[in-house]
TrEMBL record:
Name of this protein: DNA-processing protein DprA
PANTHER family attached to this UniProt entry: PROTEIN SMF (PTHR43022:SF1)
Family per similarity comment: Belongs to the DprA/Smf family.
Smf/DprA SLOG domain boundaries: 83-291
Coiled-coil portions: none
Domain DprA winged helix: 311-366
Origin species: Ideonella paludis
Pfam family, one: WHD_DprA
InterPro entries, per database record: DprA (IPR003488), DprA_WH (IPR041614), DrpA_SLOG (IPR057666), WH-like_DNA-bd_sf (IPR036388)
Amino acid sequence: MADGKELEAWLYLNPRAGLGAAAVRRLLAAFGSPQAVLDAGPGAWREVGGADAAKALAQPSDLAQQIVAHGLQWQATTPGAQVIALGEPAYPAALLQTADPPFLLFCRGQVSLLQQPSLAIVGSRHATAQGIENARAFAKHLSDAGLCIVSGLAAGIDGAAHEGGLSGRGSTIAVMGTGPEQLYPRRHQKLGERIAQEGLLLTEFAPGTPPLPAHFPQRNRIIAGLSLGTLVVEAAVQSGSLITARMASECGREVFAIPGSIHSPVAKGCHRLIQQGAKLVETGEDILQELRAQTALLSPPSARAPEGVSPAVASARTTDPLLLALGQDPLSLDALVARTGWPAATLSARLLELELTGEVARLPGGYFQRCGQA
């Protein structure tokens, strides 16, 4: 783990204005270590890294000095804080196989998870109730099989994926688009702290880095690069989730997608991926069958009813007439009246019962949707 003078040198080389990642890579390739780069001097910096890089190194800005100060302070004062530098034994091998591996990984939690086979689960921040249920159930199933679930701590699908990962034996890694001391969005403060205790918080952004919009697409390459594959649960056609899927494909990793209603905007991105060659999946086992060929560490989960549900209840769900009438697409009460022939009052009472048991979700606009088990 990077510490002391070595960490200070790494932080000083942190990409910033005038000192791009490409220049840093050239300097490291030429001189071998961060400290050797700093010892090389302006002439060598200019020759290898270019004029802008030489100027940035020779005349450090206030930002550069803040990066160094904040980074050293964070590591010294944060319980469980660890910094892993490129090339160290603890650095995840999967990231080394990508085109742009980060120089530093700021970590809080169980760094051993970086050596565990993992799967990324991503999707819309504006997910449907069914999408949230799918993400949580798939993550739980895959975590029980031994996969660590990787996602981005965002609202919607990401949060549900982390929750499912924590409830299984594989746990979860949250890749952040901020400095390591900031949990964003604020609604995930408690979830983030739980991940720091039971899973792993990880970011390439130095302490003090705010949640800037450009950082989140950048962190997606780490989500894709850490994982054997990426599962997209729900996504619009123009979304960060599809960027992650593209990056996974470029890394030679598997891409999976869950199909949805042809009328749902957050299903269209998944349908686009399937048209482009992503594997359509309906159960977690569909994913495990693909990945078991790549790692012998995955074990088949025991066949059982969903957690907290007896086999009799699970079987009854498949024959409940209202659930069968509801299908998988959102429906209004009027549409259900027309489909079942039942009085509206009877339907409303039965829908409330199913809502209380978690089998139906009430959506904005007076719509209802079935919450199935993945």
